[in-house]
Design goal:
Strands 3-2-1-4-5-6-7 form a seven-stranded parallel β-sheet, with helices on both faces. Helix content is 42%, strand content 15%. It has a single domain, classed as 3-Layer(aba) Sandwich (Rossmann fold), CATH 3.40.50.720. Helix 2 links the parallel strand 2 and strand 3. It is an alpha/beta fold and 266 residues long. The structure holds nicotinamide-adenine-dinucleotide.
Length: 266
């Protein structure tokens, strides 16, 4: 077998928009990390669908993404509801005819609470959004992607899947399930043309994070663990999300890649 390295990808001035002609769905893309990823993918030429529960917020984000110069669609849709998931897929196909990229970003937090005091309601709500939602959004979108033998699934995970942090047992449990799901689905779908990867984010001051009232000592703990000695910012995750959504990642699948200032080094 003759082994060659294609020189075309290394040519000076070769750079082009990496997601031109692609359609990306970002769940929970109306604010925070999801919105940053939506804007970043729009900047690389992708048409963008954002979903979420808050109509006014979605419309504002839709306008900002449109201003980047791409086609944009905002869909009010709850990832924990099967009918909404199907509606999200149907509306995207109706408008754009295809789905190339799914970013499973939507998630909820609950205030820090000791394991011994957790109640069933908060457990059910967290797992239905943060795990069931990811599971069935991926299934609904992947059923479309397999027909075109092409797709990129990106799960937004957390350091909590690997690092034991007191008070986050249901959130961390759902993110741990996401870690396993990323590997399992990658094993099933990659031979069908779909790459499945995840980004494990570090602690990042977003509105969702603010609402969960993290105690200062926990913030100090995270920053202290990270050799880069700072919290993440939503923009910190965009470059990797774009890479994983692009054809440059064609040989990467099943991975959960930490972007966390070095707080964990698996
Ligand atoms: N901020 C952090 O410190 C941090 C750290 C690690 C991982 N993450 C992950 O990053 C992702 C984004 O988090 P964020 O901090 O930007 O949160 P955020 O709360 O600011 O944004 C989350 C978005 O998801 C949407 N959403 C929530 N429930 C939904 C549902 N049922 N259906 C549809 N949309 C829904 C919200 O409306 C919101 O737009 C999440 O998966 C989160 O677990 C965040």
């Amino acid at each position: 077998m003759k082994i060659t390295v294609s020189s075309s990808i290394f040519k000076k001035g070769h750079a082009k928009m990496r997601l031109e002609g692609k359609v990306a769905i970002i769940t929970g893309g109306g604010r925070g990390i999801g919105k940053a990823i939506a804007l970043g993918m729009a900047g690389e030429g992708a048409d963008i669908v954002i979903t979420g529960r808050n109509e006014a917020r979605l419309q504002q984000a839709e306008k900002e993404i449109k201003d980047v110069g791409v086609n944009t669609l905002a869909i009010k849709s709850d990832v924990s509801l099967m009918a909404d998931i199907q509606d999200m897929v149907d509306k995207t196909i109706e408008r754009f005819g295809q789905i190339d990229i799914l970013v499973n970003n939507a998630a909820i937090y609950y205030p820090i609470c000791p394991f011994l005091e957790k109640d069933e309601d908060s457990f059910d709500r967290i797992t239905s959004v943060n795990f069931k939602g990811v599971y069935f959004c991926t299934q609904a979108v992947a059923r479309h992607m397999v027909k075109r033998k092409y797709g990129k699934i990106i799960n937004i995970n957390s350091d909590n899947a690997r690092i034991g942090i007191p008070g986050l047992s249901d959130y961390a449990g759902a993110k741990g399930a996401m870690l396993a799901l990323t590997r399992t689905i990658a094993a099933e779908l990659s031979p069908l043309g779909i790459n499945v990867n995840a980004i494990a984010c570090g602690l990042t001051p977003t509105e969702g994070y603010m609402e969960s009232n993290y105690p200062q000592e926990l913030i100090d703990f995270f920053v202290g663990m990270a050799p880069l000695r700072r919290l993440g910012m939503p923009e910190d995750y965009v470059a990797l999300a774009v890479l994983l959504a692009s054809d440059d990642s064609s040989f990467i699948t099943g991975q959960t890649i930490p972007v966390n200032g070095g707080a964990s080094m698996p």
